Structures are given as C-alpha cells and as structure tokens.
Amino acid sequence: MDIPIKYDPKLVEKKRYHYWMKENHFSSYPDDRIPYTIIMPPPNVTGVLHIGHMLNNTIQDVLIRYARMKGYNACWIPGADHASIATEAKVVHFLKKRGLSKFFLGRKKFLYYVMEWSKKHKNIIFDQLRKFGCSCDWNRTQFTMNPKLSQSVTKVFIDLYNKGYIYRASHVVNWDPEAQTTLSDEEVIYKEHVGKLYYLKYKIEGEENYVTVATTRPETIFGDTALCFHTNDSRYFHLKGKYAKIPIINRYIPIIGDTCVDPNFGTGCLKITPAHDIHDKNIADKHKLMIINIFNKNGTLNERGLHYQGIDRFQVRKKIIEELNKLKVLEKIEKLNQKIGISERTLSVVEQRLSLQWFLRIKKMSIPAIEAVKNGDIQFFPKKFHKIYFKWMTQIRDWNISRQLWWGHRIPVYYYGKKDNDFVVAENLEIALEKARSKSHNPYLNYNEIWQDSDVLDTWFSSWLLPLSVFDGIHHPDNHEIYYYYPTEEIVTGSDILFFWIARMIMSGFLLKKNKPFKRVYFTGIIRDNQNHKISKSLNNSPNPIDLINKYGADAVRMALMLKNSVGKDFHFEEKICLQGRNFANKIWNAFRLIQSWRVIKNKCVPDYSLLAIKYLKHRFYYVLDLFEKYFREYRLDESLMILYKFFWYDFCSFFLEIIKPIYGKKYIPEMVYSNTIKYFEKILKLLHPYMPFISEEIWNLIKKRKPQEALIISSWPEKKLYDYNVLVLFEKVIEIISNIRNIRNQNRISHKKSLVLFSIRKKEKEEKKYDSIILKLANLDKIIPISKKPENIPFFSFFLDTDQFFLLLDRDKYDSNHTNIDNIENQIQYFHNLLSIIRKNLYNDKYLTSVPKNLLLKERKKENDTLNKIAKLKEYLEYLKKSNK
C-alpha cells in the first residue's frame, strides 16, 4: 500500500466527512439503546462563526463521539438562532448601504430580505461546522423560525397568558436607541466610565434661595417632576412641601422626602425623572407624581425638549450645559466614575424609558429551578457557577418579552379598539376575530377592524423552549421522541448566557414538562484576545476558523483548543497553539508510516526487549485508559487529552516503537510483535477519535480494508482491564536510566553511536535485570555489569535513582582517546570554568543575594555545585586520557 509521505489534512477531512455522511453515521432514531442527547446552542445567523463557537462545538463533538463509541444512541441536534435584534440590525445596515430602509420597503418585503440573509448565513455556519468535523444529526437541523418551533412558541405564549403568567403593562425598560427596541436586563452590559456630575440650582418658589441638586444627565431636566431628599436628612427638612422651579422651562415641581434617596450622593437632593429611571419611577408611583417622556425612539429629544427637539441626547447635554451656565444656575462640574449600560447587540448606550410592553412573571417558576440545582438533580461544571445562579434566581424580576422589531416570532395578540383591554390572544386571525366578536359583544366586527400586534417576542423566548420544541414536545407532549430523548444529557455553553438561556430552559422544563431539560451543564471558558477582550462577532476580534483549518487542519485546531480549555476558565487564544496540534497529527502519521514500512516474518524468535515492551505497553495502555476515563467523567477534557498526548508521543513512539523496531538497515519484524503493535495502535486511535476524528478514521481504514459498519466512528470503545502498576514503576525506572545516559551523552558531547559500559549497584538486581535488554538497545551500551561498590581509579559519569547507583564508563576500545579528544575535554573544562565565574559573580554579590527570591538563589547555588562536579569529572577523565596516551 502506498502511504503518502506527508499527511494532507485538506484531502483527508473532505473525504472522511463525506464517508460519514454517506453511511449515515450521524443519524439517530429511537431504539432499544440508552439515548445520549445534546442540543447545540444555536449560533446566531448574523454572520460566520468565530473561534469561541468552534471551541463550544468541538467540546460537544468530543462528548457525542465518545458516547457513540460507548454504545449510546447518540443524538446531537444542530441549529441556528434567528437573533431578532442582531440580525435585523445587520440587514438594516445592509439595506442602508444600498439606499433602502425597512420602513420604505414595508414589513413583508423587509422580511424577505431578512429570510434571504438568514438562509445564506445558516448555510455558511453549517458548512463551517462540517469542516470542523461536527458529527451532528443533520436530518434534525433546527432553525428557531421554522414552522414547528414557531407554532410551539405561539402555543406557549397563549397558554401562559391564559394561566396569568403573561401580562401587559407600562414599565421603565431598557431601550436600545439604535435598534429601537426594548432589551432585557441580561442584554445590558455595564462598563466603567469616567463621566461628570453636574450641580444645578433650582430656585425655590417665593424665595430668592436655591436648592442644588447633582445629576449626571442634565439633558433630562425636561422630564423632572419632583426634587427629593432622604426623609431623615435634616439639611432639607425646611423645604418639604415647597416647590422649586426647573431651569430653562420654568415649570414648578414639588420637593418631597423619601427613604430611597442616598443622602451621601452629590448634595443629597435628587431630581426625579420617572419616565427615564426605574428608581425614580418607584418614587413617583409612591408619591403619585406626573410622568413625562422626553425621548424619541432613536434617542433624540421629543417636543418636550423645546428648542432641543430632534437633537441627539448627547449633543443636547453639551448644549444645555452652555445654556445653564449662561443662566448662572450651573454651580460646578465634577468628575465621576460611573457604570453605563451598553446594548450587547448594537453597543449603543442604553436609555431607560417608560414603555407599554409584554412581561412574563417568573418568580414562581424559578422555585423548582433553584431546587433542582440545589439538590444536584442538575449539575453545573464547575460548581462555582452555583453561587451566581442562585443569586440571580432569588433576585429575579419579571421578564420583558416584547421587542419592537419586525424579525422574529410575532406576538399572537390582536387589537380591535382603543381601550387598553381591547385585545385578544389567539393562534391566528380567524380565531382572534371570533374571540374579539365575543369579547366586544359586536358580532359585526370584521377583518378590517382587527389587527395583530406589530412587535415580536424576545429571541430567548423561543430558545428557552428548545429541549421540548425540537422533539415537538409542546404540541404533542406525549409523543415517542420526547419520551425517548427528554431530558437531554448535557448543555455545553459559555457562562455569559447562564441567565439568558440556561436558567430559563430549566424554568420552562419544570413549568411545561414537570421535569428538568438536561442533567448537566458544562460551562466553557471564554476565549479572549491579547487585549483581554472577549472574542465576539460584535468586536470582530476572532481569527477566521476556516483560515486556521486550511492552514493547520481541523484536527490540529480542535486539539489546540481542547488543550487550552479547562472547564469554566477563560483563556487567551494565540494562533501558535495550533502548531502543537499540527505537529501531533504529523507525529501520528509518521508513526503509522514507520509501522507500515516493516515486513512481517512468521515464526521468528521474538527478542526479549520486544516481549518486555509489549508487556509494558499493555499495562500502560490500560492505566492510561483508566485515568483518561476518570478525567473525562469529571469534564477535565484537557487533562484526558494531555495524558493521551504524552502516552502516544513518549510511551508509544519514543520508547515502544524504538524498542521493537528492527535494527538499523533491516525492515523485518516478528509477526507476534507486529500484530500487538497494530492491536494497541488501533486502541490508541479509538481514544484519539473524539478529539482528532479525521486522522484517526483515515489511519483506521488504511491499516486494513474495512466495511462501512466497521468504521472507527461507530466502533466500540476499549473495555477496561486490570493492569499491574509494578510493571509501570519498573519501566519508569528503565526509562529514567536511559534518559540519564542520553543526557550524559548530550552534556558531554559523546556521540550516541559510541558504545559505553554501565556499572550498576541495584537493590532489586534480579527483578530489574530482566529489563537490561531494553537499556542496552536504547542507550547503546556494550554491557551492564552489576557491582557491589563504587569503582575506583577509573573515569566515569554517575547518576542515582533512589537507592540505586549507576556509573557510566567509556569503553577505550570503542572511544577514540587521541590528542583531539584531549583538546576537546580541555575546551569543555574551560567552558565550565567560564560558566562558574558568571555564576559566582552573582553569588558573591551582596546586593544580588538580598534582592532575589529564595528559590532563585537555591537554583543558582545548585547550578554552582553541578558545574563544580562537571569540572571534577572532566578533569578526572582528562587525566585518564593523558595516562592512556603515554
């Protein structure tokens, strides 16, 4: 068989993925096996995937491939999210560059453009996932705007409204002026900002006196409806019940007292703007204050802003400060460190705004969701996220579920009059008309007099239902698939959507199915760039994953990400980590090529070193398998991969293959040795497969011709077996002896082709002697001679392993000891003397001794001692050479 010299990931990856798809190896149908189900966190159809998505999906693929090989009915459901705010913003921007607007096009035409955008980017995303090797069941692909999922969303909305969970009310909400829609609390990112605190004077009615208030937002004075101080603040007792005049607009507002005011902020007297601050709204409700909205949807001031109407809020701030200064009511300005809310989707500064919206009551449904995590029914990895989860869930507020957008699941509410209560909730227009006629007592109401709510539901309102809706568990709650696949096994996600998605899915599971949606939650670390920013689409700071795959291969990128990822811990991504993955892939390929180059001889006598190597490999493999699975069960996936990496690189390649390979110039190997080599190489490929599926499947099928049902992806996972740990300990000592000899050769520039003699004083001579054949071969020794005491009057290099002593002697017959070698040794002695001088320059310097850490000082002293020993050994050897030449 012709095996290419160089591994070509592009060729192999395309071929192998096609092979898996053709043979339907990713598909899952209910049967008599135990199900193992994962739902992919659906990426947004706003563009291409970034490296964070690749990490998340690699972890899922590792888990699903492992489960498939363990005999479970593995079902991984892929999907994409319609992402209302972000996608609509992208399409609006796209149209704007072409001179079009969504309002000019109208809802129907605009949604056509959005659907085309979504279709295009869905295909890009799914193609990226395939290139990365994701073994999803593509027959089950979901999109959150698919008819089945949309119908499920509508049904849940109606059911929850009928049960009193959903209601309509005016509240101060987070408003995104760029997207012109409300946001939930979780969609607002708070960032530290150096702002300003403005001290404004309000004239007291009927007096020449002023009361000074401090505000960060002077442009909101048009919405002021009161001044307020803490009820126990004696500085302002005399003002209670009086009125103050707002600068510029000259409207009088009451001065009131309330315990909600912080007397230590600013002057201790605040201006109350109920329409644009949730805390001010609470005070206004208590004191029955007027509520004035001063902002348009786009963040400009409305007609209440007088001569500032139509101007952006931040421009107004600059202009109004100039006007207040001219009016001599601006007392002073101070710098202030504050937190400002930023829209997660558009990065615009969030405005608080009174608005009529739809809300979901979730306090009651949070109780079983809290209990499920508390009692361990749902497990978090790592557990540190329990505390964050419990804190959020116990302080939970009603969820604002309506969005002022056109793209998304349209709210199933139909209006027929001007009163607040003139609406019905229904699946479609026909049913809505019947309900409206009944509710309004108007049998003549027609289609032209009823209209659907123009808003859509928050994107997460569809995502929180996914564990149920993907199996049609909402419309048909007792169907075979929901019974078989639900609850799912794991959700793999970033901690940043713990509240957006995880907590809400847990609530919907218990509310709608009376059962948890999944058993475990694996939180990935967040990948950051070299500036410590989170890798995200909005920041456009991710390397293109496809470029990385084209450069290094999918297996290499997967491996690099998995080695860097530790459950729940953030890490910085650097492209150079992919080199380690590529080098490892090449190592696997080269090991395979070496094995395939050997010729098998039947009935040949097997050398002792090969028998010992096979014995060691067997016990070492089952030890590694045991440890690998322990780490895997604990989600220490990076550690499970690292132990496998070291096992293959060092144990299998550096030692096992080196021990058994034919002596130089020959290619023949005993059949028994070859068959065992292939046997354990195949077992290693099985362990590698979840992490590096392409190269492992390729080699698996090149080792011998196999049928599709014998593919590695569906092969059985190696079964655990007992191993003798003493064998491993003994072999570790053998490896250490070989390593010491190789180090001595390197340090003293002794050719590895030169044969040497080793004297040994070992406590367990009989037991350990049987491994001497391996030491002789790998260390290139003439012989190993057991002795009872340290040799005298001959040059040697010594090393110690616990109580054992070893002395490496140069064989005069095979080592050239002419004057060239004498010069070489003298040069080495001079080199180490120079090194000693540099070391001692520091050690004899008092300033250095008092400034460096203790551990560094100890290292320097050890370096001094080691150098002295080397000089002594070299001088002893030099004397030996000089005597020999006489």
* CATH topology grouping of the domain at 176-352: Isoleucyl-tRNA Synthetase, domain 2
User: What is the β-strand count?
Assistant: 31
Helix tally?
28
Shape: globular
Question: C-alpha Rg, in Å?
Answer: 37 Å
Helix content: 40-55%
Task: Round the mean pLDDT to the nearest integer and report it.
Answer: 90
| Straight-line distance between termini | 59 Å
Can you tell me the CATH architecture of the domain at 176-352?
A: Alpha-Beta Complex
Could you characterize what this model shows?
- Mean pLDDT is 90; it is low at 812-819.
- The protein is built from 28 helices and 31 strands.
- Strands 7, 8, 9, 10, 11, 12 and 13 form a seven-stranded mixed β-sheet that branches. Strands 6-5-14-16 form a four-stranded antiparallel β-sheet. Strands 29-28-31-30 form a four-stranded mixed β-sheet, with helices on one face.
- The radius of gyration is 37 Å and the shape is globular.
- Helices cover 44% and strands 18% of the residues.
- Among the domains are: 176-352, Isoleucyl-tRNA Synthetase, domain 2, CATH 3.90.740; 729-814; 819-885, Helix Hairpins (Orthogonal Bundle).
- With 886 residues, the chain is α/β, with parallel strands linked by helices.
- The longest helix has 32 residues, at 854-885.
- Helix 19 (608-633) packs across helix 23 and helix 20 runs antiparallel to helix 21 (671-688).
